[in-house]
Amino acid sequence: MNSKERPTLGGTRIKTRKRNIAAPLDPAAFADAVVQIYLDNAGDLELVAKNIESSDLNFSRYGDTFFEASQIQLRNFSMRTPVDGFEMQVVFTGGRTQPGTTKPDEGERHPYSIIECEPKREVILPSVIYIQKILRRRPFLIKNLENVMQKFLQSLELFEENERKKLAIFTALAFSQKLSGLPPETVFQPLLKDNLVAKGLVLSFITDFFKEYLIDNSLDDLISILKRGKVEDNLLEFFPPTKRSNESFSEHFSKEGLVALVEYNEKKIFEVKLKEMKSALTTQITEEVDISEVIENVKVRVRDAKLPDIEVVRVLWDVLMDAVQWSGKNQQQNANSALRQVKTWAELLNTFCTTGKLELELMYKVQMQCYEDAKLMKLFPEIIRSLYEQDVLAEDTILHWFRKGTNTKGSPASIICKCMAKASSHSTSNNGPHAFDAAFVRRAAVLADKSAGLTSPHPNFGCVITTPTGAVASEAYLYAQGTTPAEAQAVAAAGELCRGATAYLNMEPGDCHGDHAAVSALVQGGVKRVVIGMRNPLQHLRGNAVRALRSQGLQVDLLGEDLTSKVMEDAQKACILVNAPLICRAASRVPFSVLKYAMTLDGKIAASSGHASWISSKQSRNLVFELRGRSDAVIVGGNTVRKDNPRLTARHGGGHMPIRIVMSQTLNLPEEANLWDMSEVSTIVVTQRGARRSLQKLLASKGVEVVEFDILNPRDVMEYFHDRGYLSIFWECGGTLAAAAISSGVIHKVYAFVAPKIIGGKNAPTPVGELGMVEMSQALNLIDVCYEQVGPDMLISGFLQPLPDILPTIPSLDETYAVDPTVSPYESSIIFFYKTWDPYGALSNFSPHPIQMPDENGDNVTWLSVEHYYQAHKFIGMDDTLARDSIEKIKSAKSPEEAAKIGRSMQRKRPDLVRPDWDNIKIDVMYRALKCKFSTYPHLNTMLLSTTGSVLVEASPHDLFWGGGRDGEGLNYLGRLLMKLRSEFLGESSSSCESPSIAV
């Protein structure tokens, strides 16, 4: 027996630890402090924002009070402040409100109000933009904004009619400006109060909301918001009960000028009726109801709903095939089941296939069924034969189909029949999804992603060309920046098959090189139709190619504009995802940022001791290597460097190696680390200005680039790397830096690898540190969440910012012209150029313009770009096998990017192979290559001359020799050489590619 005294039931009174007692809530004092900031800054929103940002106010405790006192509590006072020639009305009111009401409370107030201002968007918009800035810095406040907006929308009856209109304008602008993830249900659900609806207040409010929102946005954007608000299918609930009918809906919104909304509602009614018929038909076929009863039921529904015959045929076939019990393995069983279904219900099909056009449509549906599943392709002729034997299809119809639509060199099961498309185009209704168009656009998106991991991120383009019969003629994708456009490659590969063909593109072609290569290739190749997944999001390119193609007589169909359906939405989403980094660049000043972490099942990223190797499986780690290769750079914090000493390489034996970035405020980093090894890839350290000068000097001696910031924070760092041309950043940092990045609003997507392990430990670190959130309602919800098993682990991924917020507003009308980069609003200006997809991309060394230059023997040699020529000349003349091999590798490099990579890597590893006079002649080498390029291509010469009067600056923030530098400290030799050439061309000195050495 243990002699130790056993505890008794009475136990022992244990002295508890003294707790930190939170200060009592005092929203009144908080509100007065906020009001004072507005008063002190006289309504200047920029100053107000800065002072609020630098204040020590506790926003996590008083979020609702902040918005009530400063943003949405819209009463009492009004003051107009002239700004830039018009009166800007600030959204703020006054101060505190009485609990549970919108009635102002006692206390100091400030004289700004939306309710008393003019009901104009230009008056209210600045305040919406200001709120956006606040939410970007403190994203957790979005929940408080939701709470306050719900309160006011539920109290609409307390506002005057004119005041409600202003509130509707404010709400519409909030969504139009994509106010930091504000969920639509915040607006629509509180409105559905019986008393508000019955009085017509909701209908009036929602009408003003629709009219204002549609000024800057398309109907598709509005429908997207309604879907997210869960009201798309019940818009009639906004109407008073006495007017809740489709007739009232059409009459009201037609009178208000919202005809597009009326047409959309009519389309929805049609789809509902079609869905109801499909549901009833499915039930009857599944229950094997007598065929005569089924036919009569369909006739009644067709008559009552006025459904077009062609839609009925489509529904009949879909329902019949959905009822087949398909086997995943036994193909003969599938064939027998399908043929049995055709024979059983042949009379039903025969009843409604009453014309040749309808019979052609049925053949089209059969082909679609077989085409989408390769295992069913052999079944196509058998089904057609069975339909013929059952008198559903006439012999003339079948002969016509094969005579007009069959490619004699291919299988009939893989052909899109041209006459089917014609028959569909004559339908009196919306034809619904065109699965072939959607499938080929998705294929283009898949192709566009094929170079991911092989080259640094760039705009992704894919192209599929199909013949008039539907056979695939060619496929291609853009390999890297500065290489041949996908469209030009596909046209060249297709040859004569391009005549009358259709080209499927994931994104509108973009040309900054002045030669319109993609558009020219499609036109000259004889392509008749172009289907585009999305418009180019870059402002200077948007709409240019669409207009150019249409002006040449090509039919251009854009998903989401000319082609709309569920299957088209899915295809367009694939196009958006493959170019999410480019879309992000167009919509903001930060690269597309992905946060990745691996954690145990109990949410730990390491043990309490800090040990973390390995949480995830080998399969997960291999996937991480692939994800790294898709990024321009990988970023970690100082703690990760100290504890893990990572390499952060892609480890795929070739391809793109992302830059390594270390973010450390104090520069408390080891003097020796794997990241300081620059033999494979470069490392950049970003830190606070003045931090550890001795370590900075040591790192610089190792070739590590150190960039200082006055105040180190994730947003400023990301804006800097945006200026360096980075499209995508991969964050593999610890919880502290991850929290700062999320709070700064720079993280767009999250990859979380969850391992089936439990480690425990209250001090064990977690993936994300303190975000200042105190309630679960403040949690940030992921959007478009995906789940994937990777080995034993579960990968959960999703967006922190919704895709519509990433996607910039893209005009759908051709009359909306893109920005012309050759037209300057100033007589004299500075023109910046850098990446090939930026304005004036043709000025870059990486532009895809081959040049012919004489070698040492006087023989002309073709170089794929100026960068190829420049990098190779680092080693020309050196009597060394490795130097000669490097020249050949550079010359045969697929892209300027690869040529630069080979040349820079060899120069870094073997500086002894670089010609000894390189520093003295490299300017002359570049000059001769540039002169040859701009002398060879007239359109480039014209572009260069169009910049007359402007200073040309290569906007490289890190190359202080060829570029302008971060703050203009660079020597900008590339820009100066181009300006020298421009002067020579204006004076027309000589068109020769030879030139003596020059001093710039």
Write up what this structure looks like.
The structure is a single chain. By secondary structure, the protein is an alpha/beta fold. It folds into five domains: 27-253, no CATH class; 267-425, Serine Threonine Protein Phosphatase 5, Tetratricopeptide repeat, CATH 1.25.40.180; 435-578, Cytidine Deaminase, domain 2 (3-Layer(aba) Sandwich), CATH 3.40.140; 587-806, Dihydrofolate Reductase, subunit A (3-Layer(aba) Sandwich), CATH 3.40.430; 830-987, Tetracycline Repressor, domain 2 (Orthogonal Bundle). Helix content is 44%, strand content 10%. The chain is built from 38 helices and 20 strands. Strands 12-11-10-9-13-8-14-16-15 form a nine-stranded mixed beta sheet. Strands 4-3-5-6-7 form a five-stranded mixed beta sheet, with helices on both faces. Helix 24 links the parallel strand 6 (529-532) and strand 7. Helix 1 crosses helix 3, helix 33 (866-872) runs parallel beside helix 35 (896-909) and helix 36 crosses helix 38. It is globular and about 95 Å long. The termini are far apart. Pathway: Cofactor biosynthesis; riboflavin biosynthesis; 5-amino-6-(D-ribitylamino)uracil from GTP: step 3/4. It is an enzyme of class 1 (oxidoreductase). This is 5-amino-6-(5-phosphoribosylamino)uracil reductase.
